[in-house]
Amino acid sequence: MIWILLGAPGAGKGTQAKRLQGDLGFVQISTGELLREAMKAGTELGKNVEGYIRRGELVPDNLVAEVLQERLAQGDTGNGVILDGFPRTVRQAQMLEEILARHHWRLCGVLYLDASEEVVLHRLGGRRTCPQCGANYHVVTMPPKVDGRCDRCGAELVLRPDDALDAIHKRLEVYREQTEPLVAFYSQRGMLERIDAGGDAEEVYRAVKTAISRRWQQCLANG
Ligand code: AMP
């Protein structure tokens, strides 16, 4: 069973995906994390995508679809796979339909985290990330126990280069132009679950779980 988390940068996709992973045994696949790992490892792919990511632009569809396919091919689907940050364009959504059909995987639902621009700007501006384990914090709403250090692994927290103000504005513009059309795309297919993502992570998670349990029944019933 495949689930998609859709939403603007800063809407909370990563936070919710990590909760689903820990709580329900879902496997989170974040294309952003996979690309950052490739950059850290200095691979050919990493070198090719670095410029796009730093500028807050989208990586070309074919590159990112290839990364996703390789990751899916590892076959660890747990109790479901949660796609965090893919698809981000209508073309990617069409590519995903082809990939799923080829492997006989079913898309169960698209969880659309709907948050205002004010909310996402606040979240991204204060976000600090662990370069070691990928955990996210917020300087005001979710600070680490020890200032500037990751609670989980102790590494020094950093500001992601694409969380710098210029890149944030670019990412939101790209989101509005290229990713937001997916709301209509999946709504027309009857797959969309709109979730108010303006509240705290706990509140949003409750709504996410309610949407999942509703869809889960439908997904099983459809065979
Ligand atoms: P994220 O961690 O999901 O915010 O992604 C960080 C960056 O990685 C994005 O701003 C894009 O540059 C790139 N990226 C991640 N997923 C995709 C995707 N599905 N399509 C194109 N670029 C992506």
Describe this structure in words.
The chain is an alpha/beta fold. It contains 9 helices and 7 strands; from the N terminus they run E-H-E-H-H-H-E-H-E-H-E-E-H-H-E-H. The strands form 2 sheets. It has a 5-stranded parallel β-sheet with strand order 2-3-1-4-7, sandwiched between helices. Helix 1 (13-24) crosses helix 9 and helix 2 (31-41) crosses helix 3 (44-55). The longest helix is centred in the last third of the chain and has 21 residues, at 201-221. It is globular. The chain starts with a strand and ends with a helix. Bound molecules: adenosine monophosphate.
Task: Give me some keywords for this one.
two-stranded antiparallel ribbon; binds adenosine monophosphate; 9 helices; 51% helix; alpha/beta; 223 residues; 15% strand; 5-stranded parallel beta sheet
List cofactors, ions and other ligands: adenosine monophosphate
Strand content: 5-15%
Summarize the main sheet.
Answer: 5 strands, parallel
Alpha carbon gyration radius: 17 Å
Q: Can you count the beta strands? A: 7
The whole-number mean of residue pLDDT values reads 94
Tally of contiguous helical segments: 9
Question: Can you tell me the residue ranges where pLDDT is under 50 for at least 5 consecutive residues?
Answer: none
Please identify the structural class as seen in this structure.
alpha/beta
Helicity level, as a percent range? 40-55%
Summarize the topology:
Elements: E1 2-7, H1 13-24, E2 27-30, H2 31-41, H3 44-55, H4 61-72, E3 81-84, H5 90-103, E4 107-114, H6 117-125, E5 127-129, E6 136-138, H7 165-179, H8 181-188, E7 192-196, H9 201-221
Parallel strand pairs: 1-3, 1-4, 2-3, 4-7
Antiparallel strand pairs: 5-6
The structure holds adenosine monophosphate.
